[in-house]
Amino acid sequence: MLPDYLHSVEADHFAFIRVPKILLQNETFQGISAEAKLLYSLLFDRTELSNKNGWKDDQDRVYIIFTVAEIQENLNCGNKKAIQLLDELENKAGLIERKRQGLGKPNLIYVKSFYRAVDNSGERHFLKCQNDTSGSVKSTSQEVLESHSTKTDIKKTYLNDTDLSFLPGSEPKRIDDYKRYEEYFMDELEIPILMQDKSRDRETLEAILDLLAETCSSKRKTIRIAGDDKPIEVVKSRLMKLNSMHIQYVLDCLKENTTYVRDMKQYLLTTLFNAPVTIDSYYQSRVNHDFYGVHA
C-alpha cells in the first residue's frame, strides 16, 4: 500500500532535524559528504538538550555525548563508517572537537559554529590571496590568477585589472577605489544571487553594497561605529570578513526591528560591523526559541 499524501496540518505533529543551508550551499563545505552534514545536524540538534541540562565545561562551552553506537543507529551505518564521519567533521571540516575522558567513558563532543567555520575559511583564503598578490600584477603568475578566478567574470576582471589596495604593503593602482571595493563585495557577498530572491529588498541590498564600498574606500583615519571612532583599518578588516550569510542576517535584523531609527545609515553600518561577532548568538537564540516553543 502506497503512503498517503502529507497534509499541512499533519506536518506540525512531527519533529525535524534542521540541516543548515550553508552546509549545502557554501563552497567551504563542498568537500564534505552529505552523510557528514547530516551527522553534524544531528549533533547540533543534541546541543539544545545539553544546553538545557547545563552540560558545560569550566569555559561555559556546551558539550554533548553522542556515542558511535548512537551514530550507527541513527544513520543505519557500520562502526567504521560512523568513525569516518566523525573524523571528517573534526579533521576535514573543523565543525566538531572531541575530548577524550578515558577509563572507558565516551568522548565529549564540542559542536562548533558553522558560521565561524566559514569565517575562518575566508580568512585562510584571504591570507593566501595576500601572499599570492603582494607583488605587482605583472609579476603575478597565471596559476595565481586562475586560482582566484573561481566565481564570476567580475572577480576575474577585478584581479587582472588592479592590485588589492586593501592588502598590507600594496599600493593602489587606480584612483577609483570605490569601484574596486564595489566589485569585490558584489562578488564576495554574492549580491546578484541574493537579488534573485524576490522576498529580499533589492534597494536595501544596493544600499548595503554602496555603504560597504563607500566606507572601505574612505580616506578618513577613523570611522564612527555606534558612537565610537574606530580606526579605518579595523573597520575595513571586519567588513571584509562578511559573507552572504552575514548579509541575510543583517536583512533579518532590519526586518525584525520595530523601533524608530533616526540615522539609518549609521544603524546599518553598525549592524554590518557587528555581524561577524553577533550572528552566532542571534541564530542560537532563534533555535532556542523554536526548540522551547515546540517542547513547551
Word description of this protein:
The chain is 58% helix and 5% strand. It contains 14 helices and four strands. The protein has a two-stranded antiparallel ribbon with strand order 1-2. The chain has a two-stranded antiparallel ribbon with strand order 3-4. β1 (96-99) and β2 form a beta hairpin. α3 packs across α5 (79-92), α4 crosses α5 and α13 crosses α14. The longest helix is centred in the C-terminal third of the chain and has 32 residues, at 264-295.
Give Rg in angstroms.
22 Å
Head-to-tail CA distance between termini: 36 Å
Given helix and strand content, the structural type is mainly alpha
CA-based shape: elongated
Total count of strands: 4
Order of helices and strands: HHHHHEEHHHHHHEEHHH
Strand order of the largest sheet: 1-2
The biggest sheet, with number of strands, parallel, antiparallel or mixed sense and barrel status, is: 2 strands, antiparallel
Task: Tell me the quaternary state.
Answer: single chain
Task: State which percent range the strand residues make up.
Answer: 5-15%
What is the average of the pLDDT values? Answer: 75
Helical segment tally?
Answer: 14
Fraction of residues in helices? 55-70%
Give the uncertain stretches in residue-range form.
122-175, 289-296
In brief, what are we looking at here?
With 296 residues, this protein is mainly α. It is built from 14 helices and 4 strands. It has helices at 8-11, 21-25, 34-53, 68-75, 79-92, 114-132, 142-147, 153-161, 177-188, 191-196, 202-216, 232-239, 244-256, 264-295, and strands spanning 96-99, 108-111, 222-225, 228-231.
